[in-house]
Amino acid sequence: MLVALLATTACRRNVPLNSSTTEPEVVPHPVSAVRTGTGFELRSPITLSTEGPGDESLRAALADWMGEQSRHLGAPFAFTADDVNAQISIVLGVAGVEAESYRLEAADGRILVAAGDASGAFYGLQTLRQLLSVDGEGRIRSAAVRIEDSPRFGYRGMHLDVARHFFPVEFVKRYIDLLASYKMNRFHWHLTEDQGWRIQIDAYPRLTSVGSCRAETIVERNFDPYIGDGTPYCGYYTKDEIRDVVAYAADRFVTVIPEIEMPGHSLAALAAYPALSCGGGPFEVGTRWGVFEDIYCPSEETFAFLETVLEEVLELFPSEYIHIGGDEAPKRAWEESPLAQEVIRREGLADEHELQSYFIQRIEAFLNGHGRKLIGWDEILEGGLAPDATVMSWRGTAGGIAAAQQGHDVIMTPTSHMYFDYYQGDPEYEPLAIGGFLPLQRVYEFEPVPDALSAAEAVHVLGGQANVWTEYMKTPDHVEYMAYPRAIALAEVLWSPSSLRDWDSFAQRLARELPRLDRLGVNYRLPDVSGLERDRLSLEAVTVVRLGMPLPGARITYTLDGTEPGRTSPGYARPFALDLSNGPVTIRARAFTSSGRASAPAQATFRHAELRTPDLDSGDALLSGLSRTYYEGPFDSVDQLEDAPAAGRSTIPTVGFSGAEAPEHFGLVFEGYIRIPEGGLYEFELGSDDGSRLTVGAEIVVDHDGLHGMSTLTGQAALAEGFHRFHLEYFQSGGGIGLELRMRQPGASKAMDVPAGWLYRDGAGQR
Ligand code: ACM
């Protein structure tokens, strides 16, 4: 049958899904997807067959899939043993198709999903779900396509913290179900914390009888003075519940990776068993958030305890990887502990960091002895990495880079792109969150493999994961609001080839996917109205404003006077002309759905601009490259560079580092001219960690000042042909470091690095 279908489609006109007027419908984007016709109708009931080795492992997932499709399409599905006439045939064990990969052919009333194994077939079905639709007359239709697909990364994860707030089994399953439907395959279950121990351990019943309850919870961010809600908060999973979740996940090809935190974030365990601490307690389960000084003491009693706990954990979780935390473990308790100091002496360790390393290495030896592998947060690099450990890089990507360069496997989860507890919009319109700013598009721009890695080192990047820490998420609805649709952007980052990454395409495919989340009752955040991502210049006095719908059928309303648009404000129907001759105009727009959802207001200012007169018409007096001034920090704003004494001057071909900068605190100023070959609107993307500011002539084009992780801001400049004064300031203040300047020329679809040949410096007297 495979051969027959290939033959019938081979001679058809091939229309790439993403180049036709019809937008591609599949998210995450397949490796290759070709439209082979206009689509076809399916008969009701839709018959479906499976064959090949391993098809029984698909049954549970398939039953679910058929259920959701039946409800959505309003038509029943039926299994058939008669695979010759089945409309959907799933064939497993197909030679040459790797694990997790599949081929999908849909043509002439027949759909074939060909996979090597059941996980590949499962992913093929997730794609097929997005190809089926009901037309105006209630007929079920499939797109006619040929798809070949396989994941970019083997580790495609989502994490959930059930310790700060506890979530019932039913919700955990739903969370797993959703992430699996976007082809993610790891669920990192954060089960133990200062504020609660959430997993039954038979050998240590007080872990749950004492450790799973806190006396109360801090109200919002009332740390000082502390205000608690006065209400006890409890919850844990029994072993039966955990087995149930693990089996449920396995049916959806998701591996559950448990996290048992050590040596820090362990206050709940210490409240239950204070003898495991260095000071002896007593302790109470944490009621506020943050990092606590009391951690496990590196005693033999602690190791015996942890090994017994882990033995029970290993019985429940077949995952090869076990996460042992390792993050945020303050060392004061060990500095003050005679016992900890004695271990340092006994083992010949240099300090408390090496003691943490010793601690983790003992646990790793235990896990390896049981045939498992250890994952830890990137702090496990400090004091020396355990020999076989996999590092989860969360404090930026530097830890991941260092680990990969040492030959260790890495999972990228940097706060800059992967912390779904961060705000997704203006806090004024968002529920209380921990801080930060991580809009959907920034998630989508995440690149898990840093440029700093060689091809051989890059192999160690197993994939990525988003973390959902729940200090400020008390309910399943709130978790869904923070996770979706950012998780779908992440799914595409981890599944699809990076060469296919295209924000506009993604936004359109996402818009078609959101109605599914509505049907499933997922409390996702409605994306902002598009077209207002940034302020815009226009070379004409009248410009056309084009707004994009985050969801088909939504109603967009907008205002032009700076007021907040409401449901009854003027509605947007089609692109409209905006007169800028009386000055800049600020558009604010929101989307409203029939299901009652409203997006946060998006806003941008449109301004009429004349082409800027160049500072020099000719570059006769110039030399290529930029002049670069180096300053010694610390700084927390580029404004401080102006009055700082220069510590060095050099020339450099283009924007970047020389490699001779101090590792932590410094500033740089790049000065010269940029040669503009033809007049028009130029867009500059300035990415930096920490602050930066680009000025052309006297005008600030991108102001990205302040202390922050790697992120990009975009600005426009209207520039006439010639040489314009170029001034770029930057400072680095510890932690991650980065500076990138890209530019989009008029009419170009993508930004590129500013060509070195476009940058010049004063050459008078230097020839
Ligand atoms: C972490 O966010 N402490 C891993």
Describe the structure.
It is a single chain. This protein has 767 residues and is an alpha/beta fold. Helices cover 23% and strands 29% of the residues. The protein has 18 helices and 44 strands. The strands form 10 sheets. Strands 1-2-11-7-8-6-4-5 form an 8-stranded mixed β-sheet, sandwiched between helices. Strands 12-13-20-21-22-23-24-25 form an 8-stranded parallel beta barrel, surrounded by 5 helices. Strand 42 and strand 43 (752-753) form a beta hairpin. Bound molecules: acetamide. Acetamide binds next to loops.
Short recap of the structure:
The chain has about 775 residues and is of the alpha/beta class.
Features:
globular; binds acetamide; eight-stranded mixed sheet; 767 residues; 23% helix; 18 helices; eight-stranded parallel barrel; alpha/beta
